[in-house]
Amino acid sequence: MIQSPDSAIEMLAARLVPVASENFAPGNPASQTLAHESISTQPINSSLIGRVLAEPILTDRDSPPADVSAMDGYAVFPGQIDRQLTWPVIAESAAGSRPPNLNPETASQQGVIRIFTGAMVPVGCDRVIQREHTIEQVNSDSPDTVEWTDKAKSITAGTNIRRQGENQLAGGIAVPAGRVIQGPQAAAITSVGASTVSVYGLVRVAIITTGDELASRDENSETLPPWMIRNSNAEALLGILNRCPYVAPPTVLHGPDEPEELKTIIEKALATHEVVLLTGGVSMGDRDYVPTVLNSIGAETLFHRLPLRPGKPILGAVHQLNSKAPTKLIIGLPGNPVSATMGVVRFALPLIARLGGVAAWRRSQPTVTLVEVGTKTLPMHWMRAVRLVEPAETGNAASAATPGLAELVIGKGSGDLLSLAQSDGFIEMPPHANNAGPWPFYAWG
Ligand SMILES: Nc1nc2c(c(=O)[nH]1)N[C@H]1C(S)=C(S)[C@@H](COP(=O)(O)OP(=O)(O)OC[C@H]3O[C@@H](n4cnc5c(N)ncnc54)[C@H](O)[C@@H]3O)O[C@H]1N2
Ligand code: MOO
């Protein structure tokens, strides 16, 4: 019996491997029948932002490629600061220019070198003095001069020099595999001159809503009878998945409360998607066909029902077309809108990240502290909608320093999608807890 959401996620994750490693092997029949984008070698451009690196990016040369100055100022030779208070400026080293070619022995007797941030440090110089720690004198008919301030005299050897290779040596890892390419990774990839990168294929997700009560979101209230409701879960799931840049635009399907038709839809979805997210039909009703239909197609249900509120009836399963085919993930989310929305964040997002090749898919959540807690407790894991509050709003100077404050958004239960719309996310409390936390916070965006 699985006791926690985390252990349920681990159990599913243990059966999944990142999409591309299934599809990369040449001649793998799965890759042909799936026609899925395998690890693709693509030029670096903005469309790669959000994709997951399938192979590490290596540096083509030392980073930085030479000793360079970290400051605008004066490069000095050993001993120059102590030897003399005022020095002529005999040369200049600018970013983007070859450094002056000086003989350290003679140059160190003659003067210092004006240098700019990012410029190469001339051979023999052992530190850079920021210009603001000098008194500069501009001369028209003789070299400019600099005089050391007391601050300049305290600057020790090695200061303000970025050493060749201090970030990474040539051939070392610039960005490891499994990283999502965001701004810093794109910059690192560019800086090491990589012209191509390997990324995992996009994870294909199918959303299947179920239930005969569901109508199109375009239905107007004059024609929509009170026993019908608009299909809001599809929008909730799409909105949440939209934040995963390594997910292909999801397919949205709808199944009726009829097992044969539902079976056909699920099988079709499994053929062309790595993930099938169902909403509704997992509970105890006579028309809750999801568990039996999954059974009938040979899916392996790893858990059905967890000690969790909302979302107790949640179902996690895997499916393999044949022993060589990739293992697909199926999550049966309870139909209640609050359960489905929290469930997709809590269960589907980390597992989709795992399938997408994200190395840190098991990332720990930020935490928030509640400004006020009730007395109620539950003997199960409790996901509770919260709104983030500005520290100042509490009017309490001591708590203003506390990061991540939140207040509970009290709703009318797992059908109350309108109160959920007033929240920023939810916290999860373990069984029997009723203190202010801090508790892990799961944001909507
Ligand atoms: N006898 C029992 N009944 C129920 C139990 C139980 O343990 N014993 N569990 C309850 C809990 S908790 C939940 S959660 C729900 C889950 O039920 P299902 O997953 O089978 O979902 P449905 O019955 O199909 O729908 C529940 C509810 O959600 C609405 N819904 C469904 N899909 C959508 C959608 N796409 N957009 C908007 N709203 C949707 C649906 O109309 C129902 O109101 O079961 C309890 N029952
Ligand atoms: O678990 Mo249900 O989701 O409480 O309403």
UniProtKB/TrEMBL annotation:
It catalyses: adenylyl-molybdopterin + molybdate = Mo-molybdopterin + AMP + H(+). Residues 206-354 form the MoaB/Mog domain. Its EC number is 2.10.1.1. SMART domains: MoCF_biosynth (SM00852). Keywords: Magnesium, Metal-binding, Molybdenum, Molybdenum cofactor biosynthesis, Transferase. Pathway: Cofactor biosynthesis; molybdopterin biosynthesis. Its cofactor is Mg(2+). It comes from the Bacteria. Pfam families: MoCF_biosynth (PF00994), MoeA_N (PF03453). Gene3D superfamilies: MoaB/Mog-like domain, MoeA, C-terminal, domain IV, Molybdopterin biosynthesis moea protein, domain 2, Molybdopterin biosynthesis moea protein, domain 3. Catalyzes the insertion of molybdate into adenylated molybdopterin with the concomitant release of AMP. Belongs to the MoeA family. This is Molybdopterin molybdenumtransferase. It comes from Neorhodopirellula lusitana.
